[in-house]
UniProtKB/TrEMBL annotation:
Alphabetical keyword list: DNA-binding
CDD domains assigned: HTH_XRE
Name of the featured protein: HTH cro/C1-type domain-containing protein
PANTHER family named in the record: HTH-TYPE TRANSCRIPTIONAL REGULATOR, METHYLPHOSPHONATE SYNTHASE
Highest taxon, organism lineage: Bacteria
Amino acid sequence: MSRIKATMGTPLMRTVLVDGPQLRRIRLDARLTMKTIAEMIGVQESTVSRIERGEHPIESIGDDKTAQWAEILGINPARMPRRETRPDPDNILVRMSHERGWTVKDLGEQAGVNPSSLQRYWYEDSPVTSMTAGYLYAIARVLGTSMERLAGRPEPDPGAVPEPPEDWDGEPLRWYRGQAGLPQVNLAVKSGQPQNVISGIETGRRSTGRVRAGTLLDLAAALGVPAERLIAGAAPLVHTPRDPRPDPEETGAESDAGTLDDDEAFRLFREGVEAHRAAGADPRPEDAETLWERWLARHDRQVLEGRQSA
């Protein structure tokens, strides 16, 4: 607490109801960065960013970390932003987990998946087909069901198509496509997935565990096989967050002078995305999110620098 008091003075307990954006403004008033908050409560900086933007439930970090965050900012923990709705009991993830007495945190720990990443599917903010195939396979495995059932799709007959022989050392997708007698272009048409995705998987340039679950489910349905058979080794993947770009403060580089308002930061962000596209490197959604988080972090630093120099 000495570090907090040295930065903020004695915190005053606020009783106003706050949402994510208000939480960010309180943090800026306290002259704290997202990185500082993340380090002090023990979470990823991107988690702080998503909670402040209202895109991620604060429940995912647990009551202890939420209380720490509130204490740092001088907010009554009862006033921290929380999701008001409960998960739909008919959601198959929720129902099958509750049958085992599991919470979303328990499911994540059992499947080897970050529980905070499961929140969006637990509350149906996103369909399970948008998670990676490795995630969905890991969850299906611990729940004792199929990827198709979790995605609400028809389950194919596992015995309809033989499995690759033990000495097969290529990608399963290539084997099953050969058994079906389908050229890549025909499988692309039948599955609705781009041919370059199929080629990337078969050549090993794309990991089957890291493609979108919906992509793998589409390919599996077109071939009449369970989706899990297309995952090389049928092993779940563990999420490894990408390292963010080093901050100028950490690398010793000089940060940009002046301050940016939100509109200016977003304009520059859009220009950066357009530059990526013009260079032929169209960013994926997760890349765009990372770019935006970097802009927010840069913006916060500049706001703090402007206030400290005022």
